[in-house]
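Hi F.,

I've been meaning to write this up properly since the lab meeting, where we talked about keeping a consistent format for the predictions we share between groups. The idea is simple: the sequence comes first, exactly as it goes in, then the structure tokens exactly as they come out, then a line or two of notes. No screenshots and no reformatting. I'm using this chain as the first example so we have something concrete to point to.
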Amino acid sequence: MPTRIDPTVSEKMQKTVNDDRADIIGAGTPEGGVGICGWILTALAWLMVICTLPFSLCVCIKVVQEYERAVIFRLGRLLPGGAKGPGIFFILPCIEDYTKVDLRTVSFDVPPQEILTRDSVTVSVDAVVYYRVQNATISIANVENANGSTRLLAQTTLRNVLGTKNLAEILSDRDNISTFMQSSLDEATDQWGIKVERVEIKDVRLPVQLQRAMAAEAEAAREARAKVIAAEGEQNASRALKEAADVIAESPAALQLRYLQTLSNISAEKNSTIIFPLPIELVSGLLKK
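Output, unedited:
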């Protein structure tokens, strides 16, 4: 049974092609067609192909890969129907020219940029950008070099965005900065047929003097915290000693046991310390006098 094409689908496809042509610079300017000379040259090209069959097929038949598209120009004018591919397509010799466009995702490193932040700190920042061509026809017809233009725009966007941030925001809020850069680049390159998929900030390099100042500040903060912790420990220890002294004062035998325990600890170690025990009662008598 013959396959029936839904008129609605056909209309949508035609509308998509028309929208793509509307986005192309100069597509809406009437030029009066190719003219009589164009039709004559087209007829001569077809005649040459027919007369040189089957050898002309080696020149006329071209193949593009699954991830490629071919944008064809005939006598300098873009052929209707958009880009061709993937697979086999046919071109006329001498009057048609085509350009292959790779649709795969491309990544490139943004060179380190010297940026002055909002709080007057000079930092060096580099990033990586992932993008792909989403409309092969527009990427060829609207911009001379879509890849080079995207790279230059990424450098400018990186400088403009980070120039409005503080150093603390750049160091701690990379995810939001990357998301904002991705949306800005995607919006700017949409008219070039480019889709920016992802932007990531790789490294933020600080000046050596600033690194030393930040290290000194962090070290001072750590020392201050250590002193506070030591003071709190001394305070807790003094409270514990006071409580222990109160308990020993209530029971004189406890002091004697503590004295014996201290002697046991000292004698367990191998040292040359000589201990002369002194009766507690003698000390108590001296204290009373």
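Notes:
The first helix runs from residue 7 to 23.
The longest strand covers residues 122-133.

If this format works for you, I'll send the rest the same way.

G.
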